Amino acid sequence: MEILEENDLKVRFILRDAPIAFANSFRRAMKSLVPTMAVDYVVFYMNTSYLYDEIIAHRIGLIPIKTDLERFNMPERCVCNGEGCPNCQISFRLNVEGPKVVYSGDLISEDPEVKPVYDSIPIVELYEGQQLMIEAVARLGTGREHAKYQPVSACYYKIVPNIVVNENCKNCGECVKACPRGVLKLDGKLKVSNVLDCSMCMECVKVCEENAIRIEETENYLFVVEGTGALPVRTVMKKALEILKEKAEEMNKILKEII
Amino acid sequence: MEGVDFPIRCFSCGSVIGHLYAEYRKKLEEGKSPKEALDEMGIERYCCRRMFLTYKSVLNEIAKFHGAVG
Predict the structure, then answer these.
(1) Are the Cβ atoms of B1 and A125 closer than 8 angstroms?
(2) Per-residue confidence in pLDDT tens, chain A, 259 aa
(3) 3-state secondary structure chain B
(4) Which residues of A touch B9 (CB under 8 A)?
(5) Which residue in chain B has the smallest CA separation from A99?
(6) Among B59, B60, B61, B62, which would you mutate to test the A interface (most chain A Cβ atoms within 10 Å of its Cβ)?
(7) Where in chain A is the domain with CATH 2.170.120.12?
(8) In chain B, positions 23-42, which contact chain A (CB-CB < 8 Å)?
(9) Architecture per CATH, A161-217
(10) For residue B45, which residues of chain A lie inside 8 Å, CB to CB?
């Protein structure tokens, strides 16, 4: 594994020598198995704004919340059996009167460490005489259940190809012109300047009259993972691998029992 | 205010964009083109870009009648 670019919200890395099935299960684990916090239940005491309760509840649900995986349990695996207790959920209060724009930062958390990632997401605008009084309950969940629990937004990979130029090449430059991504370069000899941009469209292979270019699939993958801010992307990657390992061990155990 | 019911997430990829609309608006008021504004803010994918380009506030349309009804 080689990391090309990294910050809390985006990681680009190359995964080397892995079967494609593993690359895909890694991607899927990051998207749908790593838990994050999101608001799941909203009690409306008062809503005289122009939006329906459901729209406001949906908007609040989509706000990413800073998650501490050590502190909270998944509701179904919690000591309270999913009834809801301080170990698996946290509530936010909000009571504002118009005229005012309600932002995600106006949600008052029970715990100052568990709060929305961004404070400046507008939820609704209240006009003169309107009031919004709610209680929002957040819990852990996985992307498998609802997309709002996904810790990553864009998460994709592609094969890093191996572009082979053989001795038939006459350095005509047709392939350089044909490539839509500028992967090839003619610098005295035909060279591959940035393989990572190659989308394996095969335009260069088609245009080459000498059959000098071959594009091979490899077992290396370029991953791009973008986070929502609920968890740092590196934590998401680590957690996804842990979950995969756990699942594989469980599978081994089952297999041993059968044989 | 413009942008109070701007989508919190991009419909297609789920990237969080709700907090960026005010900044986008400010950049447009400075005379930048939508392309320049979105490029500066690092909105790369066209799914997220169309969220900004095609947004129209429903809330503001309703609010014109504030006080006239209920």
Answers:
(1) yes
(2) 888 888 888 999 999 999 999 999 999 999 999 999 999 999 999 999 989 999 999 999 999 999 988 888 888 888 888 788 888 889 999 999 978 999 999 999 988 889 999 999 999 999 988 999 999 999 999 999 999 999 999 999 999 999 988 888 888 888 888 889 888 888 888 888 888 999 999 998 999 888 888 899 999 999 999 999 999 999 999 999 999 999 999 999 999 999 8
(3) CCCCCCCCECCCCCCECHHHHHHHHHHHHCCCCHHHHHHHHCCCCHHHHHHHHCCCCHHHHHHCCECCEC
(4) 62, 153
(5) B1
(6) B59
(7) 36-148
(8) none
(9) 2-Layer Sandwich (3.30)
(10) 154
Check CB contact of B53 with chain A, cutoff 8 Å.
no
Judge: domain A1-34+151-160+219-259, CATH 3.30.1360.10.
yes
- CATH 3.30.479.30 describes domain A36-148: no
- Is the CB of A127 less than 8 angstroms away from the CB of B8? no
Q: Rounded to whole angstroms, how far apart are CA atoms A37 and B17? A: 18
Alpha-carbon distance B22 to A172, whole Å? 51
Mutate to test the interface with B, among A50, A52, A124, A152 (most CBs of B within 10 A): A50
DSSP state of A107: P
Do B4 and A124 meet the contact criterion of CB atoms below 8 Å apart?
yes
Tokens of A63: 């706000």
pLDDT tens for each residue of B31-58: 999 999 999 999 999 999 999 999 998 8
> Residue B69: beta bridge partners?
B66
* pLDDT at position B69: 61
Residues of chain A with CATH 3.30.70.20: 161-217
